[in-house]
């Protein structure tokens, strides 16, 4: 395999990894919210984990901010740059690649996505009121024995 072919393969593998990370992030945001509300009903204490909730809110917050400011997701930008650097701006037809692309990206006017992302972000914010995260408790100071 030539150095160029090897380099292109590595670029495409990295682009595929970013696409998978993008899908996992979307799943974390969408299913995370569903699990938060389901966990409230089922009494699952982990849905109140403060750091889980902060990460969840931060993820959708970035998406909403990007949509309001008309900025493309940095994961999308990186993936596209890697594919272009490898000389393949479009998907070659690999099964996983094709379906991940179909799941993540749709053609619609920008206002549709801005509205959807903002509404979803509002539901996440509402979850902080309806299913508040547990407050972090400081560990009690250790007693010193003499």
Can you describe what's shown?
This protein has 146 residues and is mainly α. It has one domain (3-130). 71% of the residues lie in helices and 0% in strands. The protein contains 5 helices and no strands. It has helices spanning 3-42, 50-69, 74-85, 95-104, 110-130. Helix 1 (3-42) runs antiparallel to helix 3 and helix 1 (3-42) crosses helix 4 (95-104). The longest helix is centred in the first third of the chain and has 40 residues, at 3-42. The protein is extended, with a radius of gyration of 20 Å. The N and C termini lie far apart (69 Å). The mean pLDDT is 87.
Number of strands: 0
Helix run count? 5
Alpha-beta content class: mainly alpha
What fraction of the residues are assigned to beta strands by DSSP? under 5%
Number of domains: 1
The H/E string reads: HHHHH
Which consecutive residue ranges, at least 5 long each, have pLDDT under 50? none
List its salient traits.
146 residues; mainly alpha; 71% helix; extended
Summary, kept brief:
The protein has 146 residues and is mostly helical. The protein has helices at 3-42, 50-69, 74-85, 95-104, 110-130.
Give the helix/strand layout.
Layout: H1 3-42, H2 50-69, H3 74-85, H4 95-104, H5 110-130
